[in-house]
Fold this sequence. Notes:
- With 259 residues, the protein is mostly helical.
- The protein has a domain at 45-77 and 95-240.
- It is built from 8 helices and no strands.
- The longest helix is centred in the middle third of the chain and has 66 residues, at 102-167.
Amino acid sequence: MYDSTNEYLPLGFSTFKKLFDLSALQKQTTNDSVYKNNFKMLSAGQISRSLDSLYKLNDTAVVRMYRTIAITLPFTAKQDSSKKAVAVVQPRYNRFDSIIPDSARTQVIASSISMASTLKYSLENSGNEIEARKKEIQYHYIEWHRKYSLSMACFVLFFIGAPLGSIIRKGGLGMPLVVAIIFFLMFHLLNMFVEKFVKESMLPPYIGMWLAVIVLTPVGIFLTYKAMHDSQLFNKELYNRAFKKIKNLFIKKEEQPIT
């Protein structure tokens, strides 16, 4: 405690109560309409309609960018006259210094720099808008394919997990469950990595979002086939007998005399 005569006065307390404002930690209810237009909340049909709108907006941005170039640099719309004439002797072009008089040279240079800066700023904004629109289109395609690829993945993982119960006879429910979880982790990791490649435009969405399903579909068909034919695919004794046969084969080859 601060005092005018004595700078600090030590005080003792039997009880000390400290109050904290916890109003910032209260649960804030978000309105449902905030994320209703987010691509993750849309159905497949709504995503298709949204893609049509995004393509139109992207085309409009591209047209606006070319219109800006045509207005700022009108000579770009005209064909170069040097390309029309076919002459053996190369045409001689006049230098900038000889065309522009000394009195207007500074003004022309300043006007050219200002025009180039304005055009650069406009093109950068248009380019950023087009890139953002392309990224948004990419995310919509990812979500559209996810609607169907995850549905198909349920069937694929079912045809992987269900046969494991009949093929793996030892270990009760635990061993088939562990193997099924391993296959699910393989699917999840592969799907996660490939989706990242799609977002970075390294793979098209129609390949990347279906790659995990395509990879695991033959596994599901193979396991289902083995289960239908009462296979001993996960029988440890089967692999021990095969290993002993291969080992005995190498032993016999080593024991054969060299002629």
